[in-house]
Write a structure and sequence with these properties.
alpha/beta; Undecaprenyl pyrophosphate synthetase; 6 strands; 43% helix; 15% strand; globular
Length: 247
């Protein structure tokens, strides 16, 4: 039986280069990348993946040219308007992880409405990482825990990995199994730093607008061939019926 990852994250890289290869503006690539998002969401739901997390806009992306950032925000708003009803119809839960206070109030309202509409859906959880950074996630969790300790709501002796998990942006989701990056670069770019501790990595030269269901299947097939040891030896894993959980 094929081993299916429960939680997959994707760094959707290569939109700008895809557009430049066609002598188009970078934003043309971002718009083309929306179709790859649709294909990946459909594949995840059809395959039985529980959670799909897509890196849409990092906290560092604000440094890009203002016109590109503006178009990205506009595209995010338009996609929210056009896609959320489809997500809801297909029983997909929509969630944004990241510091949404960095967005204008209108976009924040659209995000809240989309999350509320799809809150009870169960076939797939689609997480969009927007204005997100892995270091921000860890610091934000630490601040929340510190405030609870200061308010005597949490004992410092109770702070462990499980406690920390309950305060990061992906709390309540399955542990990250597979991290995919398109576009050819081999780095995580400040994405899900805590969560990817034991994730399997899959890098592809394919630029994001060209990433389709067949390529997603290749990544899942590759994942299925990996032996995940979680600190144990290969011999130990071979004698077990199920994989151990990370302690």
């Amino acid at each position: 039986m094929l081993k299916i990852p429960r939680h997959v994250a994707i760094i959707m890289d290569g939109n700008g280069r895809w557009a430049q290869q066609r002598k188009k503006h970078r934003t043309f690539g971002h718009k083309a990348g929306v179709e790859a998002v649709r294909a990946s969401v459909a594949f995840a739901r059809e395959t039985g993946i529980d959670s799909l997390t897509l890196f849409a806009f990092s906290s560092e992306n604000w440094k890009r040219p203002k016109d590109e950032v503006s178009i990205l925000m506009e595209l995010f708003s338009l996609v929210l308007k056009s896609e959320v009803k489809k997500l809801n119809k297909n029983d997909i839960k929509f969630k944004v992880i990241g510091d949404i206070t960095g967005f204008d109030k209108k976009l924040q309202t659209k995000i809240a409405e989309a999350e509320a509409l799809t809150a009870n859906n169960q076939s797939l959880t689609l997480n969009i990482a927007a204005n997100y950074g892995g270091r921000w996630d860890i610091i934000n969790a630490a601040k929340t825990i510190m405030s609870k300790v200061a308010a005597s709501e949490l004992s410092i002796d109770k702070i462990d990995e499980e406690c920390f998990e309950q305060h990061i942006s992906t709390q309540g989701l399955p542990e990250l199994d597979l991290l995919i990056r398109t576009g050819g670069d081999h780095r995580v770019s400040n994405f899900l730093l805590w969560q990817c501790a034991y994730a399997e990595f899959y890098f592809t030269e394919t630029l994001w607008p060209d990433f389709n269901k067949e390529m997603f299947q290749q990544a899942v097939d590759d994942f299925a061939q990996r032996q995940r040891r979680f600190g144990q030896t290969g011999e130990q894993i071979m004698t077990q019926d199920i994989e151990p959980k990370v302690c």
